[in-house]
Amino acid sequence: MSLPTDSRIETVRSYFRKVDAKDPSLLDLFTDDVEFFFPKFGVARGKAAVMAFGSRIAKEAAKLTHDIDGLVFTAQGERIVAEGREWGETADGRPWPDGHVSQGRFANVFESDGPLIKRTFIYVDPDFTGEDRKRVALYRAQDAGATPDDVARRYVERVRDFWAAPHAPQKLAAILDLFAEDVDWDIPGDHARVSWIGPRRGRGQVGAFFRELVVCIEPRRFDVQRIVADADSAVILGELASWVKDTGRLIQTPFAFDLIVKDGRIVRLRMFEDSHAVARAARRPASS
């Protein structure tokens, strides 16, 4: 039996109120075989599917609020479409939408079977915080720039190319092109004993680091074991061995490069290694 439109709209309003409140009685609004859709979750049937979706989205969206008073409804037969806006906070504390890339707009399609909802299809961009930068750049005709993973892999490749021809200026230029003009660089350690480590600022000082390194060491091994990246950073893990020319000693150490990337350039680099082993290898033997 078809219910009056106003009654079905009130059921939809109740749906949004219960979603925002994380009210378990939300399931009472659905038929047992309710059909449900959400982007990237897909189409599923049954109340258990709705519960599964709720538990999964809660891992990303810790808080969710719909502008219930501002909903716009379109009704046709047993179908009601609700258009509106939503906002919230991710599980790691980031508010959304930003009003620039993420807009918090949605449209839900509901179909009724008497007083219950038998179909709920949710049409919304699940990238709540606008992290899908490649598509944003594509649709806005912008340059997305290299991702942190791209930059990290290029860094490894260009460092290897540099050491194959350390006096070729184009090899060093290719490395420096990966860095922002005012890059924040640091290799912590005993700077009093190891001249090439320590903090540096700017692309020019990074270039000076590599030129000094050519004078001071000869690389024997540079093995990258793993690269881990997310939206803004990348970590390069591996092991290296280098011969210190001044002392004739060998540095052997694991390493980790911690990169922060913005607009396709490295804006911050930290290299972590066995600083004690480096200092020991760089220390001149005591004269007899």
From TrEMBL:
- SnoaL-like domain spans which residues? 12-114, 169-268
Report the superkingdom from the record: Bacteria
Q: What SUPFAM superfamilies does the entry give?
A: NTF2-like (SSF54427)
Recorded hits in InterPro entries, A to Z, give: NTF2-like_dom_sf, SnoaL-like
Signal peptide (from-to)? none
Designated name of the protein: SnoaL-like domain-containing protein
Q: Which organism is it from?
A: Verticiella sediminum
